[in-house]
Amino acid sequence: MLELLREVGVELPGGAGLLKFGMTPGEVLQLLPPDKVTRHRQCMGLTLDQYAELRHAHDAWLGGLLFEPEWNFDAELDGVVLGFGGGGPGVTDRLARVEIQARARPDRPEATPVAWDDIDLFGYPAAEIVAVLPGATATPGGPPPADVAVGELGLRLSRARPTAEHWERVTLFGPGSGSWGACCAGGLVCAEQGDGLVGIMY
């Protein structure tokens, strides 16, 4: 089980340790089993300094599209994939974003529990989770949207299709994400007309 801790980080499974916001890439790598780490090359993404407008870089960062050279790795632990991101301008070398994605395997169809206050964010139906998270809302009688942000928790839930029964991706934002304030009004919402794909896809 991975346990999400507000403004602190993520408790890794199997007693591997606490992934704390503010860690450097090297410190994060020391916690991860080397055989579970995958490094990525830059592809279909831009670095922070290649965006003409910071609001576009912020939108890309929120969606996991911003390429951060220091954080070009992820790790698969117990059926979930963890991705990592630094903060905004001035703190790109400090962990401020952890993305957790469920990856079902033929030999283990159930995703590893990702717990927030004892709520398994992947295990319960999406609508039930939205109903108990403060500040998260859904259309009465209908499914929640494909993407839900809960600003006061520094939490974002998403799934590939609005009709999918369970959340498939959880993103936890730490205190370092506040450095994006120079370009955006809030930590989880980019400025109006922000577009993380600007400069990536035409």
Question: Can you lay out the helices and strands and say which pair or pack?
Answer:
Elements lengths: L1 E4 L3 E4 L4 E4 L4 H7 L5 E3 L14 H9 L10 E5 L2 E7 L8 E8 L11 E3 L2 E2 L5 H7 L14 E4 L4 E4 L10 E5 L29
Parallel strand pairs: 1-8
Antiparallel strand pairs: 1-2, 2-3, 4-5, 5-6, 6-7, 7-12, 8-9, 10-11, 11-12
Percentage of residues in strands: 25-35%
Report mean pLDDT, rounded to a whole number: 87
User: What strand order characterises the main sheet?
Assistant: 4-5-6-7-12-11-10
Give the structural class: alpha+beta
Ranges where pLDDT stays below 50 over 5 or more residues in a row are: none
Quote the distance from N terminus to C terminus.
40 Å
Rough shape? globular
Order of helices and strands: EEEHEHEEEEEHEEE
Number of strands: 12
Walk me through the structure:
By secondary structure, the protein is of the alpha+beta class. The chain has three helices and twelve strands. The chain has helices spanning 25-31, 54-62, 126-132, and strands at residues 2-5, 9-12, 17-20, 37-39, 73-77, 80-86, 95-102, 114-116, 119-120, 147-150, 155-158, 169-173. Strands 4-5-6-7-12-11-10 form a seven-stranded antiparallel β-sheet. A five-stranded mixed β-sheet has the order 3-2-1-8-9, with no helix packed on it. The longest helix is centred in the N-terminal third of the chain and has 9 residues, at 54-62. It starts with a strand and ends in a 29-residue tail after the last strand. The model has no long low-confidence stretch (mean pLDDT 87).
